[in-house]
Predict the structure.
Amino acid sequence: MESKRLIADIIRDLSAPIDPKYLESRVQGKTNVTYVPWHHAVRLLECHTRGYWNYSITQLYTTEERIFLIARIEIVAEDGIFFREGTGTEVLKEKKFNRDTQSYELSEIAYGDPSSNAESMALRRAAAKFGLGLHLYDKNLPPLTLGAAASLPDTIGRWRTFSEAIDWALSVAPSLDRTAATHALNQIPPGKDRAGKWRAAIEEFKTTGVLNPN
C-alpha cells in the first residue's frame, strides 16, 4: 500500500474542480443542480487519500415524518488523523394530491429510499468539509488564491500551521501522544479563540493528564 499523504496535500487535491465525468445533475424545483454522486465521492476520497480513510454513521434517529443521520469521514494522514461530519435528512413519506378525493394523501417517496438518500447527503456534506465539490455550491465566488488565503485570520494564534500547534503541545507536554493531540485539536472549531482553547487544553493535560479540548 502506498504511503500516507499530508493533510494539506489531500485537501488541496480534494478542493480542485472535479472532472465533469464524475458529476451528475438533477432538477430541484425549477433549478438544475450539479452534484457529486455519493459513489463518485467515495472513489475520489479513495484516490486522494490513497485508501487511508474511514467512514461511519455516528447518529441516526427518526420522527414521524423524517429520518436524520450524521456521517463522519476520517482521513488518516501522514501528520495525523482528521475528521469532518455532515448531516443528512429525508422525508419518510411525501404528500400527493388525489384528484379523485380532492385531498392530500401520504405516499412512499418516488425516488430511492429515505435512509439511502439521507446517507448520501450526509456523506457528500462531510466530504465537502474537506473541500470535495465545494466549487459547485457557489459558482459565482472566485477561486481562493494563495494571496487571499494569506489575508484570512489566523485560526491557531501564533502557530502558522496545524502541525506547529501540535509540535508546541508535544514540546511542553512530552507525555502527550501525537495522535491524541491531533484528534483533540481537530475537535476545536476554527475561530479567534481556537489558540486560547488549545493552550488551556494543554495546560489542563499537564495538570490532570486528561486532554479535553472542549
